[in-house]
Amino acid sequence: MAGPIHPRLFTRARATRGFMVATVLVGLVTAALLIVQARLLADWITLAFETQALPPGWQTALFLLAAVFLARGLLAWLSSTLAHRSAATVKSQLRRDILAARLDTPVGAASSASLIRIVTQGLDALDGYFSKYLPQLGLAATVPFLVGGAILLADWPSAIIVAFTLPLIPVFMALIGWTTEKATRRSFAVADRLANHFADLIAGLPTLQAFARARAQKRGVELGEEDYRDATMKVLTISFLSSFALELLATLSVAVVAVTVGFRLVYGDVDFPTALFVLILAPEAFLPVRQVGIHFHDSADGVAAADAAFEVIDGGAGHAGSEPAPRGGDLRLEDLTYSYPGAAGPAVEHLSVEVAPGEVVALTGPSGGGKSTALAMALGFLDPTSGRVTVDGVDLTGVDLASWRGQLAWVGQEPGMLNGTVGDNVALGHPGATEEDIRRALDEAGADFGPHKSVGDDGEGLSAGERRRVALARALVRIRLGGARLLVLDEPTAGLDAATEARVIEAVRATGAGALIVSHRPAVLAAADRVVLTASASIPVEASPRSTTPLPEEASPRSNTPLPEEADPRINTSLPEEASPRSGVGRLEGSYRATPAGNGLSLLRDLLSTAPKARTRFLLAVLLASLASGSSVALMGVSAWLISFAAMAPPVLFLQPAAVGVRAFGISRGVFRYVERLVGHDVALRLQGALRVRIYAK
Fold first, then answer.
1. Are 302 and 128 in contact (CB under 8 A)?
2. CB 220: neighbour CB atoms within 10 A?
3. Which residues are CB-neighbours of 153 under 8 A, at least 6 positions away?
């Protein structure tokens, strides 16, 4: 367990440190106001009790109390404002760092769904960490000491009770917190898997519908929601247990103080103003520490998201090269081997490729043979496990990657497209390209559409073949106008007809630039100057390259050891997707029914009728919340009656029922609150799952 304050958030985000200082100062002023408030209430209530009427100067007392309440409200507003500003600053900084890390290493890292969840919902959970947990932690570090000191000066026996019981709260909080932290990480992983699964289903929905399997996958969404709800409820059970234990300890401690003061008041060991002053202050000594436990689960989600963010940030390559890349010379991949983290074997093993200026080299081999991984290393996105990449004899590790990539024109398997027009996307190759340059590049790339054709998000409106033509036109513009000297192409003619493919090959050769092409197409292999085989592949008969360079026999991958799917990510300008479907069979309590829209019911009633057992649990949560509130009111009333009646020095037996009531209402309040929070969150998760299933079903 990292401790009450996340060390990396504290050291990395400057706004966090300033905020912590501010929370301590707010805590000191709040403690002083609490003491003043307790003294005013105790003195003036005692006078009213003795005189049986409003005492002289009650207007002044009322004005002072109003001023104290106003000051406390302003402090709460200031703390909340600072917390949200600090959270916004930290989240913004983390998102920028994640984006920088992703740009530095766009392949072999977290999937798009995982990144989206981290930078949106995940980091938004830091609001709870900053707006609830940290301010309460600042109050817990200051208020108990000042309030305890005031109680010590007024009544030392009560201060001893507080001093012995208060340290038990952080001890229990730490013990339960260790378990909560582990469970939260597991829950975050389950949520991440669910996000990937759902994103994969949505992306593959046309295929699922074509094979009549879309509706069958609804069951997989239900099972994923069930897993996520179970994992989250395990976290909340432990987290709420922490707050329950803290609340129970605090309540019983205050009850002990109240009962002790009441009996001492009967025997004349303490006067009524002091007893009332201690009774008002005692709960305030325990409240900040108790609230830390209550808000601990708010911090747990935020800390888990921050840890996931730091994992992405730390996964950045951190390239340290600063020398400008040579403007000429050969590109060489020398005996490259690369293994993805967690993979059973290397994705690329002992691969050597040389591309001279103006030469067209084709890289071919079976799927999963590491061809796209080899291109990623040539682009500087991945550092080889062994071997090296050189440009004119200079190792790429010492080269400024921006200067190297400025000499490259890249076409991926799934080219990235921006919302706008075809011309806008082609002009990304060189911002100064004119419409004539763009039309020429599109014509050479075999495009039968003009630059004014609209393009939606992620290339919507373009077929796979049209996207490749736009990407190739963009690369041609970069060669002609942007000063690039090497084309790096990953399956550039896949999805194109033979005539268009021939035009694309001719356009590539006409640039005069060198080209490293990954392809399985016979026409491309036949047009290449050399073909390099990544594994035990054979060249089709109709392909007759000028030379063929197979790998050495000992460098061939093990034929009986297939590489894992994730060991060959797609290298493209968009974020790679990683499917994580939920497999296996499970058992669900009930099936979510897709409720038709427009039935006139509110969203809440609609979802309550959709999710199994949600309506019953919702009513149970409302009942438990009412019982918890009633116990709190009863506890306050019985405690006040106990102290007031004790001041009249009645027989001790008359106080016993009230003493028992204080303990009973204190325990029942904690129990009702614990169960209510569990049931309420279970209902919320069920409604969330029902809503997600409904979205997919529609």
1. yes
2. 18
3. none
* Residue 167, pLDDT score: 79
Distance CA 645, CA 238 (A): 40
State the amino acid at position 620 in one-letter form: L
Beta-strand relationship, 348-355 and 331-338: antiparallel
Count, residues in the chain = 698
Cβ 384 vs Cβ 416: under 8 Å: no
Quick check: 135 and 83 in contact, CB under 8 A? yes
- Global pTM? 0.61
**Range 338-354 average pLDDT:** 83
As a whole number of angstroms, the distance between CA 281 and CA 278 comes to: 5
Q: Give burial (CB, 10 Å; 0-12/13-18/19+) of 149.
A: middle
How many other C-beta atoms can be found within 10 angstroms of the C-beta atom of residue 230?
12
Average pLDDT on 108-124 reads 74
pLDDT at 219 over 90: no
- Residues 424-428, mean pLDDT to the nearest whole number: 91
Paired tokens of 49: 């009790």
Contacts of 696 (CB under 8 A, 6+ apart): 198, 201, 202, 217, 218, 221
Residue 108 and residue 341: Cα distance in Å, rounded?
Answer: 9
**For residue range 389-424, what is the model confidence (pLDDT) as tens digits?**
888 888 888 888 888 888 888 888 888 888 899 999
- Name the 3-class secondary structure at 409: strand
* Amino acid at the residue 582: R
430/427 Cα distance (integer angstroms): 5
**Residue 516 bridge partners (DSSP):** 361, 488
Residue 402, C-beta contacts closer than 8 angstroms, at least 6 positions apart: none
Amino acid 566: pLDDT: 36
User: Is the CB of residue 214 less than 8 Å from the CB of residue 221?
Assistant: no
Sheet holding 486-490: strands in order across?
Answer: 408-411, 486-490, 514-518, 360-364, 530-533, 547-549
**Residue 457 confidence class, pLDDT cut points 50, 70, 90:** confident
* Pairwise CA distance, residues 406 & 390, whole Å: 16
Tens-digit pLDDT profile for residues 296-324: 666 777 777 788 788 777 766 566 667 88
Q: What is the pLDDT of residue 70?
A: 93
